[in-house]
Design a protein that fits this description.
10 strands; about 45% helix; alpha+beta; Arc Repressor Mutant, subunit A
Length: about 250
């Protein structure tokens, strides 16, 4: 799990430009719109919407933006083109497996953008199912925690349904089955844990260790893929040397 988690932690800790923040809010809004359209505008009765709203709040998305997205999804706001949820698969440097979750109103555009981005670094698209078997769906809660606090939070999360843990820098990544994610987060909140994020993600069951050159290429590739208009989330089974992660951390 460490490759995805380390990349995510460092990426989220880097300075965020106004343009990237705007792009993130647009993607979060799309997720809320689709969730509200499929399951209704009440978070109490729509678990997917509830999780999408929580993810938006974790990223400091303004409440007005969230409310507007819900209204669009339920038909109270401006009409939206129908967006389809499509998962694409591919290979990156060193044969790393990559999965991309997208929301798109134009599949031809989405496939073209993804293929072009992969091709630039010697990667390629894969057939459906070619790499998906290497991933499993997991709930992840990331909390701020020093060594002393980590032990306390770990025991508490186990009682709430967590099944694995990983300390990265000053954070604790807590893993669970997807249906236990909300219970784990609630238990942590009740004990005043500082939560950075929570989501359901696709995590690799095994990782591929890359040399320095391929690792840096892969980190940059994952960033470029995530910046594509229709891509919501990117996952890979790459594991990165610490020195490459440190270099990536200091890049603009």
């Amino acid at each position: 799990m460490s490759g995805h988690s380390k990349w995510s932690t460092i990426k989220h800790g880097k300075a965020v430009t106004d343009a990237r923040r705007s792009q993130l809010f647009t993607k979060l809004a799309k997720e809320i719109i689709v969730a509200a359209r499929q399951g209704g505008g009440s978070p109490d009765g729509n678990i997917r919407l509830r999780m999408a709203i929580q993810r938006a709040k974790d990223q400091n998305m303004p409440t007005d933006n969230i409310d507007r997205a819900i209204k669009r999804g339920t038909g109270e706001g401006v009409d939206q083109d129908q967006m389809a949820e499509v998962t694409y698969e591919g290979y990156g440097p060193g044969g790393t497996a990559i999965m991309l979750q997208t929301l798109t109103d134009n599949r031809n555009r989405t496939v073209s953008d993804i293929r072009a981005t992969l091709t630039k670094v010697g990667g390629n698209m894969a057939d459906a199912g070619a790499v998906a078997w290497q991933f499993e769906q997991k709930g992840i809660v990331v909390v701020e925690a020093d060594e002393e606090r980590s032990e306390e939070l770990t025991l508490m999360a186990i009682d709430a349904g967590a099944d694995d843990f990983e300390a990265i820098d000053s954070t604790l990544h807590i893993y669970s089955a997807p249906n236990a994610l909300e219970d784990v987060r609630k238990a942590l909140e009740e004990h005043d844990a500082v939560i950075r994020s929570s989501e359901v993600a696709m995590l690799p069951t095994n990782t591929v260790t890359l040399d320095a050159k391929a690792a840096l290429q892969t980190l940059r590739l994952l960033d470029r893929l995530e910046e594509l208009e229709d891509v919501q989330r990117v996952f890979s089974n790459a594991d990165f040397p610490d020195e490459v992660l440190e270099q990536y951390r200091t890049e603009e």
